[in-house]
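Students often ask why we bother encoding 3D structure as a string. The short answer is that it lets us treat folding as translation between two languages. Here is a chain of 263 residues written in the first language.
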Amino acid sequence: MRQARRSATFVLLTALASIGHAQTENDLAKQLANPIASLISMPFQSNFDFDVGDDDGFRYTLNTQPVIPFAISDRWNLISRTILPITYQAGVLPGMGDQFGLGDTVQSLFFSPREVGPGGWIWGVGPVFLLPTATDDLLGSDKWGAGPTGVVLKQQGPWTYGLLANYIDTVGGDDDRPDVRSTFLQPFLSRIEGSITYTANFEGTFDHEADQWTLPLHLTVSKVMRIGTQLVSFGGGLRIFTDRPDNAPRWGIRANVTLLYPR
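And here it is in the second language, the structure alphabet:
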């Protein structure tokens, strides 16, 4: 009888722990869908791009994207979002061979209220900076840039939808290189079911100097899980370029691994 009670107790505690983990993972999936959530995360985003340029070239870009929130007062957070690309490309530029190295860094800072706004809207605004960190002239602009950035979103039931945007203009750098003047727009929509998130977004960049859009559509699926004591999100999906300059990819694959550190 005692053994049966112990077994029943063990099963009950295991079930309760599983429910607690599921709730935590669901909450983390919801925070991940919010670009300015109060969640420390370290995403590693792999982009495999095919049919690049005139010679059907290949490009692989690993974007390291640490997101670190800071509570700067009782009412405001400051969220740091950094994108540092590491790129390998082959056959992209005719006669130039292969290139490998760091690209330019994009550093965004969002000031965001700690409380959700009227109507359930969440927002943040701040500056964005372009830093010429490329280790190869063919992987970067050799320009310093700056401008405004902002994000607005709403989380309603299993849905998250919103828009992230920035504008970057040249403020210095090599005078022999073309200026950078670009607008970035990222409308996004996601649905969370348990610890699984289904996402659709555009990551559109308009080059004002060339008067040209690069507009990839991303359709991805991700899942939050535990590996030992570490919370991790794994995901992946398709990149479909709906508008592009001649030297941009036609299609690609995206894979994400994100380390999560709840506060």
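Translate back mentally: The helical segments are 2-32. Keep this in mind for the problem set.
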